[in-house]
Amino acid sequence: MDFYSAYAQGFARVAAVTLPVHLADPAANAAAVLEQARACHDEHVAVAVFPELCLTGYSVDDLFLQDTLLAGVEEAIAEIVAASADLMTVLVVGAPLVQGNRVHNCAVVVHRGTILGVAPKSYLPNYREFYERRWFAPGDDRELEWITVAGHDVRFGPDLVFRCLDVPGLDLHVEVCEDMWVPVPPSAEAALAGATVLANLSGSPITVARAEDRRLLVRSASARCSAAYVYAAAGQGESTTDLSWDGQTLVYECGDLLGEGERFPDGPRRTVVDVDLDRLRQERIRQGSFDDNRRTHHERVQRFRTVEWELEPPAGDIGLLRKVDRFPFVPDDPERLELDCYEAYNIQVSGLERRLASIGAPKAVIGVSGGLDSTHALIVACKAMDRLGRPRSDVLAFTMPGFATGATSKAYATRLSQALGVTFEELDIRPAAEQMLRDMGHPFGRGEKVYDVTFENVQAGLRYDYLFRLANQRGGIVVGTGDLSELALGWCTYGVGDQMSHYTVNAGVPKTLVQHLIRWVISHGEFEPAVGDVLGEILQQEITPELIPTEEGAKPQATEDSVGPYNLQDFTLAHVVRSGLRPRKIAFLAWHAWKDPETGEWPPGFPDDARVAYSLEDVRRWMEVFVKRFFANQFKRSALPNGPKVSAIGTMSPRGDWRMPSDAKGTAWLAEIERDVPSS
């Protein structure tokens, strides 16, 4: 397996190309197309999409019916076909072609010296500035036909899916401009027939706000069809007698913008991106309603014809031409992050608010440590009380120092609780823990410095044992503080421990998002300035469970030393739960996302000193840890208490996004890491 190859990892490179057109000069236009085709070949592009009628120009009007022009088009296509023999790239080129008694507005699909097929435009605009029915016949009824073009007898119709045999998942369908604007586009039916990459050759003159309409339609089509949509519009050189042209190029994938070209360019422009074919396939197999829709439209879908071809993709590292977010749960766009934090925070608050109201207005009992998770759970509980019109004193916050509790974290818990105005108490668990360890015959009970998992869990378990009993005593429910990342990694104590609560507000929040939620709370003045000051200080602290005493001169216990960097583990978690990707592909993406801290974007407000890099060795090492812990700790997730889903990526709830047997093994996943992920 070629780990470094984008094609071997399930990607296909596509290009949306716009270029200056020479009106009514097919030979000159063929030369321009071939110039861009060779550039696409050099850039390892699998499919290049050119504008509508690019061999003649869209705006030649009655010249479409001139034999001289139509003959020139045939010659231009013959030239392109011959020149494509040495090119890897599939070329999708717009041209007027005669079929029967009419001229059709067509997309000609050319590859390695042959024409794979011709797709006529199904729906012709004949309103406002458009007058296409004067020249062209609609192609929506031309299924199961053949056409002779430049001496080649090829399939003709809107019913063609071009399936690549050596790049699994690369199934191309082509439609032309207006086809995208109708209620049921040909591409929608093609997607149900298996097409994953939908191409649109467009003329589309520009008017104010039309570019936004195109983005809306392309994005919507890619999202609804779980597909990639490649759009190329006509630009420079078209007639400006009555219209203007902007040469917009777009590529969307499942509703996400992968690339957009410069508008109103001077000269040709290529928008080249890598489409994730695995993602498209996974989206479709997960969303059963996608295939149900195929059943509804079975009669039309089954009529699609498949045209097979081979790309012979390049081997080795050709780079990765797409943005890979370091933090799948945390957008790096400030406006998007702002909205995500607003929604996530209010989902948590409203969830707890509803739960408190529905069971008789109990108090909220919560353990606070001065760390990020319990801090965030505490402010969520306080905001829920505010919205219910209840005093914050109905939030009962307990700090419970153990054998390794630091003065700093304890002080933060105390100051934050006091600033919020909750009912706050300190409960020292050390005497009870010492007694339990003695009763168990643990070496620590005899004075030995043995700090094993039992030593840690005695403390973690006692804290929640006290919280549950305090809730019984004082008429409350225990609000859990554990987060999504900890549940995925099993970094929680089962039963009477931080795995359990009456209601867990952070269960849908990954570790990498918590800090941004707290920053949002501070910046939006959700609480008094004194609260914001303490929250800002808490954000600077290292993540630690504080369960093992620190020896003189030794580094304090750090969670990430055991479970791995949450940066990487949340990356893996998102791609496992949301996309079902193979370990080798997740490692490939993680390597591209994290190998250089100077490239790519970071979330707003992310500290400069935290902008780290991870080597492929790091990625592999911590992925092995993730897989082992993820499978070994499913039993904890199978008994998860109630809590709201926050991210569209998913949760660990057995009643929601994630169901798996508690006794499953990760052997196959670990074997793939060993076999397919290099250590350096």
Ordered list of secondary-structure elements with their pairings:
Elements: E1 11-18, H1 26-42, E2 47-49, H2 67-83, E3 90-99, E4 102-111, E5 114-120, E6 145-149, E7 152-156, E8 160-164, E9 171-176, H3 186-192, E10 197-202, H4 210-224, E11 228-233, E12 249-253, E13 256-260, E14 269-276, H5 277-286, H6 288-296, H7 298-301, E15 305-309, H8 334-358, E16 363-367, H9 372-388, E17 395-399, H10 407-420, E18 423-426, H11 430-440, H12 453-474, E19 476-480, H13 484-489, E20 503-504, H14 511-523, H15 529-538, H16 559-563, H17 566-577, H18 583-594, H19 616-632, H20 634-638, H21 667-676
Parallel strand pairs: 1-2, 2-3, 8-15, 9-10, 10-11, 16-17, 16-19, 17-18, 19-20
Antiparallel strand pairs: 1-14, 3-4, 4-5, 6-7, 8-9, 11-12, 12-13
Helix pairs in contact: 1-2, 8-9, 8-14, 9-10, 10-15, 11-12, 14-15, 17-18, 17-19, 18-19
